[in-house]
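Design request, tokens follow.
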């Protein structure tokens, strides 16, 4: 089997650049971050597959293409301040950390936040700050942000997050049903109280659970009736 750096190069060329991601800063970042470090030892051999992978707690590390697509949708050029909701493994935060000056990332499951913090520290990402909590409420002390990316699917765009964007800043978030596919949307704050919304691509993500997301009772009811598979995918359609 080829070494991880070879596999990473191939991932960027075949799964990402060939599908139309052109942002130089995003492609360079995806070439640098060792995805194998963000999955369990048992899953390392799948780290550069074109798919999400289970990370425990019924959550996933997103498909590499989706991570790159969402980072490109933020239209970062380098040097920005970015907020991520849904740290998960910490992989996307590391990718953003290669581009932005500072990355603030929030995870609602403490065990995942703790694990991601350790890996990010170990890899030297001292510009990535991990917090355990409900990301739908944002990180008010650090607002405003140039970009906000939400890596879990909500019923609607959280008003609090919209108002933590600087004017000209962009928020990228999957919006739609709890069990069905969602639409990835980009919201740009064009003036103090004016926002433009664009539809991007269909995606499927795990639910955004919180005050301005899905209620947690919804989650426990659903777990009781139809348990979500550990590797339930979050991925684009038809690619
Ligand atoms: N970005 C992650 C990565 O690179 O591994 C993948 C994230 S996973 C698809 C979505 C994550 O969002 C899960 O870890 C889930 O626990 C988290 N999440 C869901 N609702 C949240 C909320 N309100 N605040 C923070 N995290 C939340």
């Amino acid at each position: 089997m080829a070494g991880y750096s070879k596999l990473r190069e191939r991932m960027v060329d075949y799964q990402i650049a060939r599908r139309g991601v052109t942002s130089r800063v995003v492609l360079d970042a995806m070439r640098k971050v060792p995805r194998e470090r963000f999955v369990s030892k048992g899953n390392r051999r799948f780290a550069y597959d074109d798919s999400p992978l289970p990370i425990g707690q019924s959550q996933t590390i997103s498909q590499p293409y989706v991570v790159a697509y969402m980072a490109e949708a933020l239209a970062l050029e380098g040097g920005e301040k970015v907020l991520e909701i849904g740290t998960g493994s910490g992989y996307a935060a590391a990718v953003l950390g290669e581009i932005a000056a500072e990355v603030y990332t929030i995870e609602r499951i403490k065990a995942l936040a703790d694990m991601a913090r350790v890996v990010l520290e170990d890899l030297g990402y001292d510009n990535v700050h991990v917090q355990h909590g409900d990301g739908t409420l944002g990180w008010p002390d650090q607002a405003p942000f140039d970009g906000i990316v939400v890596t879990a699917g909500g019923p609607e765009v959280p008003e609090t997050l919209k108002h933590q964007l600087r004017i000209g800043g962009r928020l990228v978030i999957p919006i739609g049903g709890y069990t069905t596919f969602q639409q990835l949307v980009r919201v740009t704050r064009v003036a103090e109280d004016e926002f433009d919304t664009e539809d991007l691509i269909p995606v499927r993500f795990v639910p955004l659970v919180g005050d301005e997301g899905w209620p947690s009772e919804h989650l426990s009811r659903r777990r009781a009736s139809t348990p979500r598979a550990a590797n339930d995918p979050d991925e684009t359609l038809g690619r």
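Comment from the thread starter after seeing the answer: thanks! The chain has one domain: 2-224.
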